[in-house]
Amino acid sequence: MNLTQNKESVLSNIIIQNIQQQGPISFRNFMEMSLYYPDLGYYTTVQDKIGTKGDFYTSSTVSPAFGAMIARQLEEMWHLLGEHFFTIVEYGGGTGALCYDILEYLSRNEKLYAGIRYCIIEKSPSMRARQKLYLLDKVYWYDSIKEIGDIQGCVLSNEVIDNLSVHQVVMEDELMEVWVDYDTDYKENLLHQY
Fold it and tell me: Is the Cβ–Cβ distance between 88 and 111 less than 8 Å?
């Protein structure tokens, strides 16, 4: 058993123990634990997730052209907003490649670049540490958009929607929420009415 499989097994045991002690958990809580449990969740482990050594690619890791294209649109927004201070908020910065490519392109416009603040909202400590290795200028990290304050600029994300822990509901005779239980394996139950 390799280290990744061992961590998955440890996390699975933690989730099972939680269910056995407290009863079924919402799909949202199951997803949150699976993705973000400290040091054991998919996005909180140190292993590469994105790129050639990871499990998947995103547009920003394939070519800097994607970041440049978004940067051109941001430059247009800045111009339309009166060419004042401009805040970019990125949810889930991943490897930091998109931020890097956007800032690299925007650095060519001295007036815009002087007034830029790039805020990354990143839940994963390992991803945040990776980003901090080479995002050295204009970038600030936050746990929540509420910490940033007023924004004149743009909020963006790239392939982050699938990383959000969500409640899963289905319509039976009435709206029901999906909960996760465990017997000899994980199973879904419709336990909660809205």
Answer: no
HSE, side-chain direction, 13 A CA sphere, residue 193: 3
Given this model, what pLDDT does residue 44 score? 75
Q: Which residue in this structure is represented by tokens 């699975």?
A: 12
CB-CB neighbours of 19 under 10 Å: 19
Q: Kindly give the parts of the chain with pLDDT less than 70.
A: 1-5, 7, 46-52, 54-62, 192-194
User: According to the model, what pLDDT value does residue 55 have?
Assistant: 56
pLDDT of 106: 98
Give the tens place of pLDDT for each residue, 24-50. 999 999 998 988 888 888 777 766 666
* Domains, in order of start, for the chain: 3-46+165-193 (no CATH), 59-158 (3.40.50.150)
Global confidence as pTM: 0.75
**Is 3 exposed, middle or buried, given 0-12, 13-18 or 19+ CB atoms closer than 10 A?**
exposed
Q: Count of residues for the chain?
A: 194
Tell me how many degrees the CA angle 7-95-53 measures, rounded to the nearest 5.
Answer: 60
AA letter at 130: R
C-alpha–C-alpha distance, residues 130 and 117, integer Å: 19
Cα-based angle 179, 184, 187 (whole degrees, multiple of 5)? 20
C-beta of residue 131 within 8 angstroms of C-beta of residue 93: yes
DSSP 165: -
